[in-house]
Amino acid sequence: MQILDAQKESKIWPLFRLGFRTFFLGGALFATGAMLMWLLTLLGFKVLPGVVNPIWWHAHEMIFGFGLAIVAGFVLTAIQNWTGIPGVRGWPLATVSLLWLLPRLLMPLRGELNPLVVVLDLLWLPLVAGLLARPIIQIKQWRNLFFVPLLGFMTLLNALSYYAAFSGNWLLAERTFIAAVLALSALIAVMGGRVIPFFTSRATGTEKPQPIVLLEKLSLGSFWLATLGWLLLPRAPLFNGLLALLLLVAALSNLARLARWNSKLTLNIPLLWILHLGYLFIPIGLLALAAALLNLGISVSLASHWLTAGALGAVIIGMIARVSLGHSGRPLEIGRTMVVAFALAILATLLRSLLPLLAPGVTTPAYHGSALAWIGAFGIFCWVYWPVLTRPRVDGRPG
């Protein structure tokens, strides 16, 4: 990291000194509040007065509001480590953060069909992509440029989800949301392959397993093909079978990847086991989606929550807990309170996706319990990490 002028840095409110601060805290606060509003909606309270389709709102906001906020925080922070160029901070960061926040606040009141909400929500991701592209192109670090078209793809999916809302086409909305979930899960697979074995090796004092090139290409290639296939292939038996096969290949190859990462060594290290367990939900979710396509007794909604509540929820809370400590100059250690948060994140997944399969008669209480567990997990994160993310680094360095 390049060292900035200390006086210039001190004039920036700590929350806007790097992207992880703004978007990790904002994303976690939103994840907590939005899930609370969803729970109240399930219980019959009118807390979304402007929203036409509350199910659309829930799916859209947890993907494009919460999930992509965390992605933005991650890439806007990592870019200075990748390029050696100082990351986005100050007014540019505050501006893109505001563009993310406004649609989140306006949508419950104005609804998903409000033009201002739509325009604002379609602006912030391209701005993140532009801020990301500039230093990468400047030093010609083409490997990390892939995040730019990915953010463009997510913007297109976001626009398509609004089109589905305007046209009242729920089947298109569901297809779009699942494609977005698969894309985010594939991104976790890409980044997980980079960092989870590395984190595990450093924390356990063991040698980092070297990637098997063929396995890497198979696991990630089949994942991205399945994502595009889910979005583009017609829903017919032949194509469903082909897509299910792609999902099966992606599931088994990603399970094989995880099996090489020494998961058994992480049982006493919460900052690691939450990542390994969260990654395990990826192949489970892919298998569940394949089963849903083949009409094997599971719905697409239930299957997809292995990836949303499971992989996204668990990996995200584990990653933001670790990254926030490292980038604020703190030791990579957490207390029992955060271990409880991790356990609640796992519980939210099991209640949402496993319990309704085992005991369909308690599906509604399971949904409510899952929402409460999610609120508890991310609420605890906000409480514990508020001082970490809103105060300067403890070592006096910028960032």
From TrEMBL:
Q: Which Pfam families match?
A: NnrS
Organism domain of life = Bacteria
Instruction: Spell out where the chain crosses the membrane.
Output: 20-43, 55-79, 91-107, 113-133, 145-165, 177-200, 212-232, 238-259, 271-294, 306-325, 337-359, 371-389
Write out the entry's keywords from A to Z. Answer: Membrane, Transmembrane, Transmembrane helix
What organism, scientifically named, is this protein from? Zobellella taiwanensis
Q: What is this protein called?
A: Heme-Cu protein NnrS
